[in-house]
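Hey, resending since the last one bounced:
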Amino acid sequence: MGSRAAGGMGSEQPPDGMPEALGEESRRLTREQLFTVVAAASINFSSMICYSILGPFFPSEAEKKGASDTVVGLIFGCFALVNFLSSLILGNYLTHIGANFMFVAGMFVSGCVTILFGMLDKVPSGPMFIGLCFLVRAMDAVGFAAAMTASFSILAKAFPNNIATVLGSLEIFTGLGLVLGPPLGGFLYQSFGYEVPFITLGCVVLVLVPVNMCLLPKYDSIPSKDSFWKLALLPKILLLCFTIFSLSACLGFLDPTMSLFILKKFKLPAGYVGLVFLGLALSYSLSSPLLGFLSDKLPYLRKWLLVSGGLTTALCFFMLGPAPVLHIESQLWMFVLVLVLIGFSLGMIAIPVFPEILHCAYENGFEEGLSLLGLVSGLFNAMWSLGAFAGPTLGGFLNEKLGFEWASAIQGGWALLSGLAAGIFYITEATRTSSSSSLQTSPGDNEERTHLMGSET
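The structure tokens again:
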């Protein structure tokens, strides 16, 4: 899902008087920027709808084929683990491969393997089915990593001064994919069987490949000498990486577990299970443009969005079951309401974190350009994928051993740790900055104080 500077992202000015927000003065977008937005919207929508159609029916289908809850979690997690490794590699070699080629090649691979995934019901149950699930998901992960890493880099290059606003606005299409995927997948599965959802959506992705080949502008880049590990090992970057990890782990936990819980707890048919997913997806997609706009207009709010988003997400996961210690009986309306709050709180983390990483990189002297954007995009996708591996894997195991109520409460611990860590870090950073400026400013030297205040503004 998700996210993603702003003032301070560099000295490069937006071409042709680029607007401050995507939603404002959209008529002033250049042709290249408009085509970039359309291409990015297509990959956000198509990748999320292909990813989310599995939720309502695949876990139960896999159980029929001999896969336990833990194995189902590992199948979801396999996608994330391969995506993690692919993002690290592709982010480093973006300028050598070419952002445009990586984008369309990733979409082509994703479309093909989505169709292949629809053929797996013909495979005999047991180890062969499980093994091919892992193989096809791994291939899909490579294509997804290529397309998303290139997409983030191209967007940040095209919109250097309002990337959070643009990414937040594009999350509408991510949300649409998440919204339409589960009910569409559940309906097609219930009406036509296992193969049709995958074949239909895989063909849609393949049709978008030649369209994007024509739409995407070409962005030339010069390879940079900046090191990936120099970026990844900065203390603030490490914190932000953990924040991305915790967000993705919480979201990934829901993939293999939530549909099974809804089916067993509320006795809903598969076609209606997808509708429950709407609460999370709609709140996330509708709140993302506003959060992106705030992140660009008021950059100092980013840190507190990360803190409050982590703590709110932790509370919501504790209430999702709800946790047995609360002695509250789970009801469908309450479950959907908590999902709505989770969607909003996840947006509070996903949208500001990408520009925060970019801003930190520029503060530490990294050279501006597509090469750095490739490093940041690869790092973002890698940490997202690592969380998406840990979330379903651990979640499937906990769900099998402890039940969904305890599993969701424990899973919320990731968000709690990231929120607390971010809060402590930013408070410490503010204290050090305040102490440093007070030491540098002499109480009796008005001229020097005035000079310092002028330089800060």
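The chain has 17 helices and no strands.

Sorry for the duplicate.
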